[in-house]
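Example 4.3 (complexes with small molecules)
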Amino acid sequence: MLKLIIFGPPSAGKGTQAQRLSKKYGIPQVSTGDLLREAVAKQTPLGVKIKSYLDTGKLGPDDLIVQLIKDRVSQPDASNGYLLDGFPRTIGQSTELDKMTEIDLVLNINVDLELLVERAVGRRICTKCASVYHVKFNRSKAEGVCDKCGTALIQRDDDKEATVRNRLNVYKDQTAPLIDHFKKKGNLVDIDGSKGIEDVFLQMTAAIDRLSK
Ligand SMILES: [Zn+2]
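Answer. The structure with zinc ion bound is encoded below.
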């Protein structure tokens, strides 16, 4: 059994790493966001309850989320373990998780938040061909115009500075107490997320492979 948690700020490449880890270790990636969407779409009894919360713009209460996770990790494909992504998100959820099982390792991706702001705020996209540019790191030949199709580039609302900062602040506030909790338990490892995708992956697999020694 290999039971992992992956933490990391939005747009720090968490999804990419989670997919690769899932493949390498043969364990499913269990994402709260995906489970919520799936339960709602399938209109399971839990999904119907959750939908009423989502409609009000709130995340479901901890016990609903925990139930969703419990159901998921008892599926046959999780018999060798799983990688939790987006869970736990509150101290209440992590207390429930502690009652449920013992997590082997918490991978905590550290990235300078200002770097994430810079990456997002400078991003420009072409609405016609979906090419992605950056005003500093990947400029178009003519300013504000797509190289491939000549369409005017735009900044998505999601990439506006206030939105990005808000998202990162929410993450910081939510996760800080959890990080403390796992540090006390002694199963948290810090991953330097400022490095490239390959390097970050190697840091993670090195930490996981140390577990079995
Ligand atoms: Zn284009």
